[in-house]
Automatic annotation (TrEMBL), chain A:
Pfam families: ABC2_membrane_6. The lineage of its organism: Bacteria, Bacillati, Actinomycetota, Actinomycetes, Propionibacteriales. Keywords: Membrane, Transmembrane, Transmembrane helix. InterPro entries: ABC-2_transporter-like. It comes from the Bacteria. This is ABC-2 type transport system permease protein. The chain crosses the membrane at residues 30-48, 107-135, 147-172, 202-221, 227-247.
Automatic annotation (TrEMBL), chain B:
The chain crosses the membrane at residues 21-47, 53-70, 107-128, 140-160, 167-187, 224-242. The keyword Chloroplast does not apply. Keywords: Membrane, Transmembrane, Transmembrane helix. This is ABC-2 type transport system permease protein.
Length: 259, 250
C-alpha cells in the first residue's frame, strides 16, 4: 500500500512537471501519433497484397498492434524512466547510493519510483487501435479476462527483463544493453509465426517477446486456453522471482560510486 | 586538400576512440538490422516462392549498416551541453568533426554487421550478381551522403528545440515507411509508390538495395538532385542556427 502511494505521488509530480512544458507535450503527442501511424501503415501495406499473414487477418493484426502499443506505453511510462541507461545513471553516476539510503525497497525505488506520464499517450492510442481491431467481432468475456491476465503477465515479464538487464551492470558496469533491448522489443509487434523457427523459439522461451502482444492478442481473439494462461502466469512469477534474486545478489557486489 | 587531411586525421582518431566501445557498437548493429529483418520475414511470408525478396532485404540490411547516422547524439548533444563552443573555436569547419565521427561509426557498424549479413545470406541461400553489386557502389555512396545530410539537418533543430530525438525519430519513421524498409517500393499502393519515388527516402535505402539485388534501374540523377537540395538547406539552417547559439559555461 505504501509503495502504491509512493507511485501515485511520483506520478502526480511527474505529470505536473510534464504539463508545464507544453511544446514538449505537443512533440510527444505528435510522435506517438506518427509512431503508431507508421506501425499501422506498414501492416496495411502488407494487407494490400495478402488476405492474411502467418494466419492473422488484418483485424487480428490491429488487435496485436493495439496490445503491443498499449504495453509499450505502460513500459515507457513506468519502467523506462527508471531503468533506461541504468549502468550509466544508476551505477557509474552513483544514483543507486541515494536509493539505498531511503526507507523503502531499493528495487522498487530503482525500478518503479519515477514515471513519464506523457508516454501514456501511446497507451490511449493503443486502446484505440485495439478497439478498431475488435469492432467487427466483439470478443467473449472469457477472452477479455484472459487477455487482461496475460497483459499483466507481459508487463511483469517486461519489468523483470528490464531489471535483469540492469542487474548485469553490477557485474559489468560498462555493458549497456538498452539499445539491444529496445531493438528486440520491436520483434514483439509481429506474431511469432512470421519469423523463422530459431527466432520463434528464442522469442517464446529465451527472450519472451511473444508474451508481450502475440499471446494476449491470440487469447482475446481465439478465446482462453488454460495451458497458455497458466504458462503466462508462471513465466511472470518466475521472471519476477529471478529479477528479485539477481537484484539482491547484485547489491551484495555493489560497493558504491560516490563518497 | 587541407580539409581532406583534417578529415583523415579526425576519421583515424574517431575509429580508434570507438574501437573501445565495440560492445555498444554491436548493440547499434542489432538496432540497425532489426527493421529490415522484420521486413524480410514479413514479405517472405507473403511471397514465399520469390527469392528476390530475400536478396533485396539482405541488400537493405547492408545498405542500412553502411549509411546509419546518429547526429542527434553525436552533434545535437554538443549543442545542449555547450561543448559545440570548442568546435566553433577551432580553425576548421565544425562539420569535419561530425563527418569524421559519422564515417568512423559507419565503418565499425559495417565491419561488425558483415557477419550478420553473411549469415543471413547463407541461411536464406541468397545469391548476388556481382556486377550488380559493383554497379550499386555509387548509389550506396550517394545514399550515405543523403542519410547524413537528412539526419544532420534534423539534428540542427537542436538549436531551436530540446526535443531533437523526437524530430529525428519522426524522420526515421518516414525513411522506414517510404524508403523501402517497411516494403519494397514496388509493392506499395500506386499513389504511395509515386510519392515515395519523388521523395529522398527511396534514394537513401531502397534504390541502392534494388540496384545491388539486380532489380532496379533507377537514376543517380534523382539522388544527386536531392543531395544538392539538402546541402543548400543544411547550409542555410546551419547559418541561421549558429547565430542563435549561445554557449553554456565559462
Amino acid at each position: 500500500m505504501k509503495l502504491l502511494r509512493l507511485v501515485g505521488v511520483g506520478f502526480s509530480m511527474a505529470l505536473r512537471r510534464s504539463v508545464a512544458f507544453r511544446i514538449n507535450l505537443v512533440f510527444d503527442v505528435l510522435l506517438a501519433f506518427t509512431g503508431l501511424g507508421t506501425a499501422v501503415a506498414a501492416v496495411l501495406i502488407v494487407f494490400t497484397r495478402a488476405d492474411s499473414l502467418a494466419g492473422w487477418s488484418k483485424a487480428e493484426f490491429l488487435v496485436l498492434i493495439g496490445t503491443y502499443q498499449l504495453i509499450t506505453g505502460l513500459r515507457g511510462t513506468f519502467i523506462d524512466p527508471n531503468l533506461s541507461w541504468f549502468p550509466e545513471t544508476g551505477i557509474r553516476n552513483g544514483k543507486l547510493d541515494g536509493h539505498l539510503l531511503q526507507p523503502a525497497s531499493s528495487l522498487f525505488l530503482a525500478s518503479l519510483s519515477l514515471s513519464s506520464p506523457l508516454a501514456l499517450i501511446q497507451f490511449v492510442l493503443g486502446l484505440g487501435v485495439l478497439g478498431w481491431g475488435i469492432a467487427g467481432q466483439l470478443p467473449s468475456v472469457a477472452g477479455v479476462l484472459s487477455w487482461l491476465v496475460l497483459v499483466i503477465a507481459g508487463l511483469v515479464v517486461t519489468w523483470a527483463l528490464s531489471v535483469l538487464l540492469a542487474c548485469l551492470a553490477f557485474w559489468a558496469p560498462k555493458l549497456q544493453l538498452d539499445v539491444f533491448f529496445h531493438s528486440a522489443w520491436q520483434l514483439g509487434s509481429y506474431p511469432t509465426d512470421v519469423f523463422a523457427r530459431p527466432i520463434r523459439v528464442i522469442l517464446t522461451y529465451v527472450f519472451p517477446m511473444a508474451l508481450i502482444a502475440s499471446v494476449p492478442s491470440a487469447a482475446l481473439l481465439r478465446g482462453p486456453q488454460t495451458g497458455v494462461l497458466v504458462g503466462g502466469v508462471l513465466a511472470a512469477a518466475g521472471a519476477a522471482a529471478l529479477a528479485g534474486l539477481a537484484w539482491r545478489r547484485g547489491l551484495r557486489r555493489y560497493t558504491g560510486a560516490t563518497s | 586538400m587541407r580539409t581532406a587531411v583534417l578529415l583523415g586525421f579526425r576519421l583515424r582518431q574517431e575509429v580508434l576512440e570507438w574501437s573501445g566501445a565495440w560492445w555498444f557498437l554491436l548493440t547499434l548493429v542489432v538496432q540497425a538490422v532489426v527493421a529490415p529483418l522484420i521486413g524480410l520475414f514479413v514479405w517472405s511470408a507473403v511471397y514465399p516462392d520469390d527469392p528476390s525478396i530475400a536478396r533485396y532485404y539482405v541488400a537493405v540490411i547492408l545498405v542500412t549498416l553502411m549509411t546509419e547516422s546518429f547526429e542527434q547524439h553525436t552533434f545535437s548533444e554538443r549543442i545542449y551541453d555547450g561543448t559545440l563552443s570548442h568546435e566553433l573555436l577551432r580553425p576548421q569547419p565544425v562539420v569535419i568533426g561530425v563527418i569524421g565521427m559519422n564515417l568512423a561509426i559507419r565503418a565499425w557498424l559495417t565491419l561488425l554487421g558483415a557477419p550478420i549479413v553473411l549469415l543471413t545470406g547463407i541461411a536464406l541461400q541468397v545469391g548476388f550478381d556481382w556486377t550488380a553489386v559493383l554497379r550499386s557502389t555509387p548509389y550506396v555512396m550517394l545514399a550515405a551522403i543523403l542519410v547524413f545530410l537528412w539526419t544532420f539537418l534534423l539534428a540542427l533543430t537542436a538549436f531551436w528545440t530540446d526535443r531533437v530525438h523526437a524530430v529525428v525519430g519522426f524522420g526515421s519513421q518516414l525513411t522506414f515507411l517510404l524508403g523501402g524498409t517497411a516494403a519494397p517500393i514496388a509493392l506499395l499502393p500506386d499513389t504511395w509508390r509515386r510519392v515515395a519515388e519523388v521523395l529522398p527516402f527511396y534514394g537513401m535505402n531502397g534504390l541502392p538495395a534494388e540496384i545491388a539485388a539486380g532489380k532496379g534501374s533507377g537514376s543517380m540523377g534523382y539522388q544527386l538532385i536531392w543531395v544538392v537540395v539538402l546541402v543548400v538547406v543544411v547550409t542555410v539552417v546551419w547559418r541561421i542556427g549558429v547565430r542563435r547559439y549561445t554557449a553554456v559555461g565559462s
